[in-house]
Write a structure and sequence with these properties.
The structure is a single chain. The chain is of the alpha/beta class and 343 residues long. It folds into two domains: 274 residues, Vaccinia Virus protein VP39 (Rossmann fold); 56 residues, Phenylalanyl-tRNA Synthetase, Chain B, domain 1 (2-Layer Sandwich), CATH 3.30.56.70. Helix content is 38%, strand content 25%. The strands form four sheets. It has a seven-stranded mixed beta sheet with strand order 5-4-3-6-7-9-8, sandwiched between helices. A three-stranded antiparallel beta sheet has the order 11-10-12. A three-stranded antiparallel beta sheet has the order 13-15-14. Strand 8 and strand 9 form a beta hairpin. Helix 8 packs antiparallel against helix 9. It is globular, with a radius of gyration of 21 Å. The model has no long low-confidence stretch (mean pLDDT 95). Bound molecules: S-adenosylmethionine. S-adenosylmethionine (SAM) binds next to strand 2, helix 2 and strand 4.
């Protein structure tokens, strides 16, 4: 099933998010086992928090919250059904709750944009807390509604072949700037795009030096549609997309610990994505094979043959953003000169 999910009565439940919840469980096991308190801020049925509490083996106390009374009935029933002594339900606006309580792990999973809740979430974090954030407003972030993106995230998106990567990086850049307002820095641990959403797991780091350090990872990206040249720059220019995050999207050491996929609901899909994330180069854009073949007026090569050929001169990887996309550290000029050999 594709799409934004369905409601049970007034309560939201999205079967398609099974993969997203699988990744939450794997991530929690790999990075949050020392967390003592966890807050599922927008829990709906409690499906995600219950799965993490049940399947991670964590010792944390979980609070599963929703502002909607009907949702909280589901949460309570799910906690009871699963016999979770480490979990409790709460009915509150997450912003007022987080003005009074702090946590080691907070999950923010809104309909649409997380922007109105980010400050509350960061203020509700204990030292070195981990924050997980979903955004389903992919259209503004990926450039379909550029003005909305600028209003919401104070950044210019890019409509085009790698627009979703730019969107994810704009969102991380926005989180870095929001954290910096509180003299905190961010360290992305796992950030990805799948189906209709972006998802970011980050560590919130204390102090102004950490804030400055994260801000130093913001930049701009230009894309020339006539030449296909992509360029990353520290400097603002009116035609550039950004500001956006130009540093790594994932912490490879955490990915290496996310191994126990067999008990997950979608083990094959989890393995596929974990493999892609582990191997994806830290380059802030990618190429589409079709893009290069149209540009050169030749037929596209088999992607693996192209990657093998690139690896004789430099680095190459697939990207999780697109099944026909790839990343490389070669210059476009080098890429275009070897491309016809394999097409
Ligand atoms: C997309 S659903 C969450 C889905 C859920 N995390 C899951 O994995 O199935 C968003 C939920 O946020 C709740 N919500 C919206 N605004 C809120 C707020 N300010 N405080 C707390 N909950 C809120 C809604 O009632 C809704 O149940």
């Amino acid at each position: 099933m594709k799409g934004p999910g369905k409601r049970i009565g007034r309560v939201f439940f999205n079967q398609q998010m099974a993969f997203n919840r699988d990744i939450s469980v794997l991530f929690f096991k790999a990075a949050c086992m020392d967390c003592r308190s966890a807050f599922d801020a927008m829990a709906a049925t409690g499906a995600r928090g219950v799965r993490i509490a049940n399947e991670s083996g964590a010792k944390a106390q979980f609070v599963m919250n929703d502002k909607d009374a009907e949702a909280v009935h589901f949460i309570e029933a799910n906690i009871e059904l699963n016999g979770l002594e480490c979990a409790s339900a709460s009915q509150d606006d997450l912003r007022s709750h987080l003005a009074k309580h702090v946590y080691d792990y907070i999950d923010l999973d809104p309909f649409g944009t997380p922007a109105p809740f980010v400050q509350a979430v960061f203020q509700g974090c204990k030292r070195n807390a981990i924050v997980a954030i979903t955004a389903t407003d992919t259209a503004p972030l990926a450039g379909t509604h550029a003005k909305k993106c600028m209003r919401r995230y104070m950044a210019k998106p890019l409509r085009g072949v790698f627009g979703h990567e730019v969107g994810l990086r704009i969102l991380i850049g926005y989180l870095a700037r929001e954290a910096a307002q509180l003299d905190k820095g961010i360290e992305p641990l796992l950030s990805f795009y799948a189906d209709h959403y972006f998802r970011i797991y980050l560590r919130l780091k204390e102090n102004a030096a950490a804030a400055e350090h994260s801000l130093s990872h913001l930049g701009y990206l230009t894309f020339d549609r006539d030449t296909l040249v992509r360029e990353v720059s520290d400097e603002f220019s009116p035609e550039a997309a950004g500001p956006l995050w130009i540093a790594p999207l994932t912490d490879k050491a955490i990915l290496d610990r996310m191994t126990d996929v067999d008990p997950m609901q979608q083990p094959v899909r989890c393995s596929k994505y974990l493999n892609l994330w582990r191997n994806e180069l830290d380059v802030p854009y990618f190429y589409e094979s079709n893009e290069l073949s149209s540009f050169l007026h030749i037929s596209p090569p088999v992607l693996e043959s192209l990657l093998d050929r690139i690896r004789t001169q430099g680095k190459a990887s697939r990207t999780h953003f697109s099944p026909s996309g790839f990343k490389t550290d070669l210059s476009l000029k080098e890429l275009l000169s070897l491309y016809p050999e394999v097409s």
